[in-house]
Specification:
Chain A has seven helices and 19 strands. In chain A, helix 2 packs antiparallel against helix 3, helix 3 packs antiparallel against helix 5 and helix 5 packs antiparallel against helix 6. In chain A, the strands form four sheets. In chain A, strands 4, 9, 10, 11, 16 and 17 form a six-stranded antiparallel β-sheet that branches. A five-stranded antiparallel β-sheet of chain A has the order 1-19-18-3-2, with helices on one face. Chain A has a four-stranded antiparallel β-sheet with strand order 5-6-7-8, with no helix packed on it. Chain A is an alpha+beta fold. Chain A starts with a helix and ends with a helix. In chain A, strand 13 and strand 14 form a beta hairpin. In chain A, 32% of the residues lie in helices and 39% in strands. Chain B is mainly α. Chain B has two domains: 118 residues; 144 residues, no CATH class. Helices cover 77% and strands 0% of the residues of chain B. In chain B, helix 2 runs antiparallel to helix 3 and helix 3 packs antiparallel against helix 4. The chains are: A alpha+beta, B mainly alpha. At the A-B interface, helix 2, helix 6 and helix 7 of A face helix 6, helix 7 and helix 8 of B.
Amino acid sequence: MRVIEAAASKRLAVVLIAALAAACLLGGVSDTLFSPWVMAALLAALAINTAACTTRMMRSTRGNGGADLAMEGTLPPDKAGSARERARELLRALGYRVRTIGPVVEGRRGVSARWMLILFHAALVALLAGVGAEVLVRSERVLILAPGAFFEDRPESYAHARDGAFGGTYARFYGRAVRVWRKDGVDWCELRVVHRGRGGKERLRFSRSAPARLLGGTVRLRQTGRAPVLVLRKGDRILLDACVNVFGRDEVPLAGGGKLQLVPEADDDTFTAMLAEEGRTVLSGSVRPGARLEGGGTSLEMPEVRRWAEIALVEDPALEPVLVSAALCVVSLAAYALMHGRSMAIWIGPDGAVRVSGRTHRFNPLFQEEMAGVLEGLVS
Amino acid sequence: MTSLTPAYGALTLYLVAGTLWLVSAARRKPPLATAARALAGVGVVIHAVSVALQWIADGHIPLVSLYELVSAGTLACVAGYRVFAWMHGDIPEAGASVAFASFVVMGLALQTPTEPSAMNEALKSYWLIVHVIFALAAYGGYTIAAALGTAYLVRARQGADRQEALAHRLILLGFVAHAVMVLSGAIWAHRAWGRYWAWDPIEIWSLGTWLVYALYLHLWSVHGWRGRRAAWFAALALPLIVACYWAVPLFSKSIHAYSKGLR
């Protein structure tokens, strides 16, 4: 219990929030000022502090928290008889739930506000715990595919596989016949998947911004590229016979010191090729699939252009709990902000004395105005 | 007519309204404040026309470029203050703060590219509307609360407690809207980019400013910060929100589409 009391320090909460805010603001300006470990430590400390504070709030809900306010007046003689009924009417008109206990008319409004605050803090703890769990269980694997190629979805196929990731689901499907194309400036990939475990074929289409669902996770296109197959001959000598991956303005070093520069021309499979030897251009021009470029005893052929796609498969079992916690945070916070929990008690004495007392968990001069209005409504 | 003509018209009216509010506060002349409210109201209508024209030119909701976001944001702030003044009474110092802040921020936004914006694939989502509308609600609430704080610091008038309570309520509602903005942004980011949170500089600053207001709420409720301390906090926290829009993209590369207008 003493540990909870120590961890539930409100001063600590303020210090942690201030430190996190400072870490975010400084880290947002410069990467060098951002430390993931400091952030993780602060978030973990905040989660513990919030959990302890929430526990303490739940224990103190039945206590007498809040601000006590009171004001007094005297009823005119002609209104003393109907004062209690008038008090009930005034409180009901303000939206209070009213009950009468002896000489006291008591009204309550927005009593759930405090519970909403507790719910918000509890959901925040769940959210922070869920984010921590997500770091541990989330897996993302990247696979580079060539169109038309057959591939098997096993760990060895992945460019960056994490050990133990995917929990064995990799064995349940394999895909083939990858297709990559561009439409309206957007790269798309189509992947035919055969599920091994439950059988059946599936055709998945996805892009960078439109992922597809696969085995409880998502599959998304990360990037696409073109790789022309090139055969460069000088007389009877073959200088290059390779599939060259072209990202932008690429230079391919050749045997004998020459360089072949390749620049993609447009959105089709045409490239501008330039062969330089000893600082002078030997061959230059456009080359497209099936065509040949010749000059100076040198020829460049491009039998085909291969496209490739880099896809990412993401599995994130902690995601849904995190989202539910986040949604609960927002909903409970909104409910708390819209509710103003308060209670008012009107005591009417036999001699016409009136005492209006009130309690609110949020200091609010608007509540004092409300109390003054009730008193005014009774005595005037 | 392009959207710029009414935008400059609204900008001028905000400047004049702000000046009238300022003179009204200094000389204690209520008729000038009445004129300021009327001019600000006309400015809001003209500003709304500018946003509508930008919408027509874009062919989609104009909440993409920096200029469009700031234009919608300043419209929300001035319109929000007009509604506030109608419900709770006008405070000339607060009116002047809102009008001058809107004039400066909108004036700066007009120096950035103002041509119709293009929607890329990631922006074509209903989450754009949810995300930006709640961002505007949050920043509108914070701006009016900062204006009330400034008014409190300039002159603590009769009924200052009430003014302070209203500022607190505005920050609380802004805080809720801010939370919805962050959550909807995360859901949208997952749909568009495949991740909920990527520690993008603007994402980090958005979380950081939310935490700053969380600090305000804790200091208010737990440590009893009231009066000038709370007013200073409300007034000084607002520049962080402005910096989140303007300064962060200048220092760091962000994936947020609007930040490209600054580079």
